[in-house]
Amino acid sequence: MKSAERTAWTSLGVGLTVLALKGAAWWLTGSTALFADMLETVVNVAAATAALAAVRYSAMPADDNHPYGHAKVEYFSAVLEGALILVAASMILQEAYQAWFQLRPPDQPALGLALSAVATAINASWATILRRRGKRLGSPALVADSHYLMSDVVTSAGVIIGVGLVTVTGILWLDPLLAAATAVMILFSGARLLRESVGGLMDEAVQADDLTNIRGLVSTQAEGAIEAHDLRTRRAGRITFVEFHLVVPGAMPVAEAHVICDRIEAALKEALGSAVITIHVEPEGKAKHSGVVVL
User: Which ranges carry the Cation efflux protein cytoplasmic domain (predicted)?
Assistant: First the structure.
C-alpha cells in the first residue's frame, strides 16, 4: 500500500474515533454546541472517505483516456469537502436557532467536556501530521483534510470553553450562541477550501516562490541556449507541469540542443519532485528578447 493511501486510511480511522468520542459527549450533555462540534466531525469523516477514494484513484497510471494521469481527481475531493462543510454549517445554524427557544442546562458536563477534550487533542495531533505528510506527498486531498481538521480543533476548543462557562455561570443562551459561532467559522473555512480547490481545477499557475525557482533553474541550466520564453506552469495533484520555448543558435546540432533540454529537465524534476516538462526548441530567429535570460 502506498504512503498516501495508507495516510488516508489512517485519517479515516482517526475521524471515526473522534466522531465516537464527540458523539458520546453530545449524548451525555445534550449541548447544542457539542452537537455542532459532533456534526462538524461527521463531515470530516465523509471528507476523509472521499479523500481516500481520490488518493487511490489518483495513483492509477496514465492510460489512453487519461494520458496526463488521474492526479487531478484529488481536487474534486477537496471541492466535495468544501461543499460538505457548507452543508454542515447550515444544519448547525438551524439547530442553534431551534435551541435558542428551548434553553436547557447541559447534563453531565464534566464527563462530556472531558471526552470532547480528548477528541480535540487527537484531532490536533493528527492534523499536524497529516498536513506535513500531505505536503511531502504533494496530495491536495490530504492537505485539504488537514486544514479542515485544524479548523475543527479551533472550533472544538472554543466550544469546550463555552460549554464550561455555561456550566459555571448558568447563562444558558451561550450554548446555542456558541453553536452559531461554530457554524460561521466553518463557513469561512469551507469557502476558502472551495476557492483553493477550484483554482486547481482551473489550472492555476504554481505559487510565486515556485515559479521564481523554476525560472532560476532554467536560467542556470540552459547554458548554450539564448533564452527561454512563454513559460507556463500548472499543477494536477502531486504533479507539476512546466512548458516553455527554448531558443538556441540556429546552427546548433539537434543532439546538442537535446543535451541542454535533458539537463534542464533533470534539474527541474529534482527540485519539483513529480513533474512533466515540455520544451519546444526554436532557432535564434524566434527570440522574443523577453522571459528567461540564460546565464
Answer: 209-284
Examine the domain organization and report whether 94 and 176 are in the same domain.
yes
Q: Are 203 and 234 in contact (CB under 8 A)?
A: yes
Q: Which residue has the cell 495516510?
A: 7
Segments forming the whole domain that contains residue 35: 3-201
| Residue 56, phi then psi, degrees to nearest 5 | -65, -45
Distance CA 30, CA 40 (A): 16
For residues 218-229, one letter each, b for 16 or more C-beta atoms within 10 angstroms of the residue's C-beta and e for the rest, the string is bbebbeebbbbb
Q: What is the pTM of this model?
A: 0.61
- Alpha helix (H) residue ranges in 65-108: 73-100
Last residue of a domain, one of 176, 201, 226: 201
Tell me how far apart the terminal alpha carbons of the chain are, to the nearest angstrom. 44
Please tell me whether residues 149 and 72 are part of one structural domain. yes
Q: Is the same domain home to 152 and 8?
A: yes
Helix (H) or strand (E) holding 104, with range, is: none
Give the Cα separation of 48 and 13 in Å (integer): 9
- Write the single-letter amino acid at 132: R
Tell me the residue type at 71.
A
E strands, the chain, in order: 227-236, 239-248, 275-283, 292-293
Distance from CA of residue 215 to its chain's centroid?
26
> Into how many domains does the chain fold?
2
Mean pLDDT, the chain, integer: 82
